[in-house]
Here is the input.
Amino acid sequence: MNSLKSDLEQFICVGNDVVELKLVKSEDDFFNNKKVFRPEMTHQLFGQTENIFGYKDLRIQLYYSSTRLAVYLNHNYSEKINPNQYEGVKADNVIKAIVDTLEIQPITSKDEFIKELAKESTFKPSGNLIHSYSREREGSTSQFQVYKHDRMSLDSFREYHSRMQTFLWFFIDGASYIDTDDDQWLYYTFFEKQVEGSSTRYNFVGYMTLYRYYAYPDKIRLRISQLLILPPYQKQGHGAEILQAIYRDFVSDINVLDFTVEDPSDNFVRLRDYVDCKVCMNLPSFQADVIHKGFTHTMENEALEKSKIHKKQVRRVYEILRLRATDMSDAEAVKAYRIEVKQRLNIPFQKQKNELEKLKKVLKPEELAAAMQAVDTNERFKMLEKWYQEHIDAYMRVIGKLSS
Here is the structure.
């Protein structure tokens, strides 16, 4: 039995290590291993362990043409498990798992895919161009553009969206496809504009989706749902550039109240903190000579007017910028900051305490003792200190970026 288990373990590989993603601009790119980037996760395709069973030296090639996002899918391996030799145990059908999850009809012929590359120069982004900017990339200046789609009105964009959203499974945890028939969705696509002689290419960089919610009594609240920037374009400042462009797109819209974010990742929280701090640090109420006086409604109003920042996020921005303005060698100033932040963090415990006071009138003694144990003072202090330190660590990373 142990021998069989040991033999079978030879046929286990990790999905993250064997899936090759690539944006292909030319035939040379197809064969260039330096263009490969790996997924951050594959559990949404292959299960929680992210393991694939049944192959040795497995290599899964999932390549996209860089503008039209034509999809090539294939796999190879040095050996596949033989069910006749291993008590009928079969290899996972990895191609079916990918096709079914991504809902794609891939090209499986290398030659056919390379022929498709000839059509790349015919692609033009749909939607309205709302922002252009440049970045130094690979030793030269590259131009980038952001396009807005108010709704899924064009069949051509519907098809394009169906391909670009397939990247979600590899980079967004808990990914799911949205209902494109719902007109409350907004779409933003990002491209690298590349001029080559007389032709212009638009290489896909990423995209963002927002949803329009009702905000009482007569406004719309925009919720950022998905933001994806592909690995070849990450850590180049695109996220901040794009988020600021979208803020500007709505700042004068009297129907839009503010922005919120749906279940943000840690990376997006840092991005949003940075962008919002950049906006607010230039506003009068956030200046160093007044920010130490405490949080005010003026701060909320100025941030809302400037970039439609939600009031809860304004409070977080205030804490970051006040920490930035605090003299860390001044013990009293540091103490005052710590007390104010902990008072905010203590609000859930205070609500719990107030509820307990009400329950004292109706609970039996043993039930009351159990409830009081849940709000043990020492445990509350420990939890508050833990939360406080986590916030300070996150805030200091943003402050470091603001200073760079």
